[in-house]
Each structure stands twice: as C-alpha cells, then as structure tokens.
Amino acid sequence: MAVVVLDNGAYTAKVGLATQDEPKVVPNCIMKAKSERRRAFVGNQIDECRDTSALFYILAFQRGYLLNWDTQKTVWDYIFSKDGIGCSLDNRTIVITEPQMNFQSVQEAMLEMLFEEYRIGGMYKATAADLAAFNYVADSEERTTMQTLNCIIIDVGYSFTHIVPFVLGRRVLEAIRRIDIGGKALTNHLKELISYRQLNVMDESHVVNQIKEDVCYVAEDFKDAMSVHQSEQRRKEVAVEYVLPDFTTVKRGYIRVPGQPRYDEDQQQMVPLCNERFTVPELLFNPSDIGISQVGIPEAVADALQACPWEAHRELLLNILIVGGSAQFPGFLPRLKRDLRALVPDDLEVSLICPEDPVRYAWYGGREVATSPNFDEFTYTRYDYEEFGIHGLQQR
What is the top-level taxon of the source organism (predicted)? Predict the structure, then answer.
C-alpha cells in the first residue's frame, strides 16, 4: 500500500499519498459560522459555507504545539475519509511532521493516537525543516547528498519562525533559533490596525487573513517607506482601497482598481489601506514593534551561523532555503538579503532560495523520503511500538 505523507501544520495540513503528484491542502481546524450555527465545518467543508463572516476557529495547535487532540482527531477523521484523500490509515505507513523541539508528552500522545486509534502499520516522524532539506537535496542539480548537505532552512510558519542549520546533513541542535512571530501574529496585528483606524474587524480573522495575502508586502527600506505621508504622490503609489466581501454578490474581497469599477462596487463597504501594507510584514524583521523582545529573522540567522562550525559558514550562506506561507510576501527576499548582507563577513556570499511553492515544499520532501529505496529501514513499525513504546522511537 502507498505511504501516506502528512505535513501537519498549525494552519493547514498538507496530505496525500506518496504516489500522487501533489498534496491536498486542508485547514487544520474546525470552523463555526454565524450564518449556520447548527453546523461545524471541518477542513475544506468551509467551501460549502455561504457566509464566512465572523468565523470562529477551533485550532488543534496552541502556541505552535499540538495540544487539542479532540480537534485534531476530528480533522484527521475528515482527511482520511472519502471527502479527504479517500483512504484510511489502517495498516499503512505514514510520514508525519512535528514542530521543532517537540515536547515528549505530545510525541507520546501522537504515537498512541496513530497506533491505537488509526491502527497504522508504521511511521516516520520528522520536522518540516528535515523534509524541506531532503527535498532540497532531491531538487539539487549538483551531486549533493544528504550526508554532504550544508544549508540553512528558514521556516516562516503560522505560530513561529524557525532557523534550522544543517551541517553534513544533520541539524545543528544548538544552532536552531526560534522567533515567536508567524502568520497568525501578522493577521492579528492587521486586525488591530484596521479596527483602530477604520472599522471593527476583530472577529473577522478569515477576511483579514485574505486582506493580508492580497495587499501586504515587505518594504526594502522601512525608514524610507515610512515617509510615504510626506508627499501626496508617494501616498497615491502605496494607498489602496480594499472591497470587503458581502457574501452575496462579493464572495471574496479584492483591491479596487481606480477607473475600472466592478458591478455594484459603489454600494460595497471598503477599507482604505496605506502604510499597513508594509508595517505588518515588518514584524518578521522587527518583532519589538509589538512588544516581543526578540530579534528579527536576519539577526537570528546571523546568530545561528555563529553556533555552527566556521568551516561550513561559506556553504551555509550559499544555501539558505526559505519555506512557509509568510515567505510569499513580495519584497521578502530582497529585504532579507540586504539585511543579512550587513550582518555577515564581507568575503562570504549570501544566496537565498525560495521555491515556487513554499507552503507545500516540505510535503514534497516527505514524498521523496517515502519513495527512497531504504525507507523501510527508518520506519517505526507496529512491532517496534508494542515492544519499545516511545523510547524506541527516540533512539531510532
């Protein structure tokens, strides 16, 4: 039977069989809408909801770790049903991801649920950064193997951003850095800005997340960008009007194009946005803007580099791979390269790689793992679980 690959993220789960070309992306939560109070929407069932205003989210992950097991089981039941990928986990092997530095109690709970509730035949557990590194090797045109890989993975996730260096194919544990900023914090900050300046959208996480994806970008020079209000011309270049959905004629919001009005546009509610467009993603570079006393991504990368063997620094800086949903902001790569260039030695080159699909990149790595020739040697089987429990998996 084909191996199941599940990149179990805090915001979305990417899941599919290792024989498939691409995964299914499923919201990893239960949602309740005001318009249909009797029904809870699980995963992609939210597409059936006519009015997604004031959506209430019940998340499986809290602060980046899987803690709500009832919610997670409900989502997994949906994923492995006919509406999901159409196959059960019974006696199958699964490749599944977990957060960096995961708590042992969470690992034990996951192991117990998969083997006891879903009756899997075996499992291979890794972090999203591990799978991204494996996929990076598979995509490499040079003759790089996992044993010779030197790279830095920047995983800009939903709850955290992780910087994970790999030297000779292994994670340098003492060099891993975590910043408590991710897509969730950016959406919440944008909600607050719009609510204080325009209209109350504190209950509209779903809509504000779409606004963030549609209008936000990273400013290459933040101080220069903040002078946008000093001239009318510059303000016009940045300012946009966002048409909010009314869920009757407009199902999803969009940026209003001056001079090209859509049908019935004058009667729709709009939100004017200006410096919010670049001040929200700026949190990835300056978390202190919202009172988080941590450094930004460039400083965290430079600090992680110092904890790695100096012989690997040149190759590490030439192979910086960026994955995760928030890596898709326009201008993110040039800004990160500029800031990082100022923090590392002048004689070392800096090269950033962002794949076309940073959200599903780790899943493709899981597929590469599952189809590798010696995959069976690394799986933790039902026999191993019954014989050794959690301790055998940690040794493996």
Answer: Eukaryota
